[in-house]
Amino acid sequence: MNDTGGETPFISLIIPNHNGAQTIGKCIETAFRSGYGNLEVIIVDDCSGDGSVEIIQKYPCKLIRLPEHSGASAARNEGARSAKGEALFFIDADCILGDDTLDIAARAFIENPDAVTGGTYTPLAHDRGFYGNFQSLLIHYSETKHPEPDYVATHAMLISKKLFDKSGGFNEKFMPILEDVEFSHRIRRRGVRLRMEPSIQVGHIFNYNLWGSLKNAFRKSLYWTMYSIKNKDLLADSGTASVELKADVLSWCACTILLALFVLTG
């Protein structure tokens, strides 16, 4: 039974999917297993070619298929346009909902309907590998440091449909990975409050080895640096792009330069 003070807001769970055959089934299963009744599950398939659609069609969810690969922002916007819920809850196709995640999200929405509320990853990754656990714990710590965060990530973003429609949605021409950062900064400049609710947690399936972890970190760092330079907040404390992480990178670079100078000069 849902414990939301007698109210159960209608939640539209929106999940973009592109070639997520390995995880999308688990993601959908946990949504329906939660027992939250006032719910619709919307999957927007971004032109997958790996059998994802066949998996999605096994479940009683609304499936929207984009005619061409358009990116996660376009998929999320399309899902929001077709949503009937008063609350939109965005997650990713490789995320796993806990049994009480939707109940907690419903309570958070009732308490703060005019804010954008963020959740985070569970401290341990769903797949429990070393590199996945490292990433999950780092992100959990970084995202929950501040009750009013710099941005809300789309792996667990709760927002009213009215507010989302008014915002204009995600920028479909913006660089990948950071579309939620751009959206959060844009909507905050309009006076909308961002808040973090650490009890809203989703398990993430990383399936990383060392190379995959390093490649992911490099790709994110590249986009973060480009965005931060343009946004003139390179030294800002911003979620996973935290002051601590930036200090570590600068220290590592300084040590590398000093080591190279030592080798070259003797």
Structure, explained:
The chain is of the alpha/beta class. The chain has nine helices and eight strands. The protein has an eight-stranded mixed β-sheet with strand order 3-2-1-4-7-6-8-5. The chain is globular, with a radius of gyration of 19 Å. Mean pLDDT is 90; it is low at 1-6.
* Beta-strand percentage range: 15-25%
| Number of beta-strand segments | 8
Distance between the termini: 71 Å
Q: Indicate the mean pLDDT.
A: 90
Major beta sheet, specifics?
8 strands, mixed
Helical content class? 40-55%
Q: From N to C, what is the helix and strand string? A: EHEHEHEEHEHEHHEHH
Shape: globular
- Spatial extent as radius of gyration: 19 Å
Helix/strand-derived category reads alpha/beta
Numbering strands along the chain, what is their spatial order in the largest sheet?
A: 3-2-1-4-7-6-8-5
Helix count equals: 9
Low-confidence stretches: 1-6
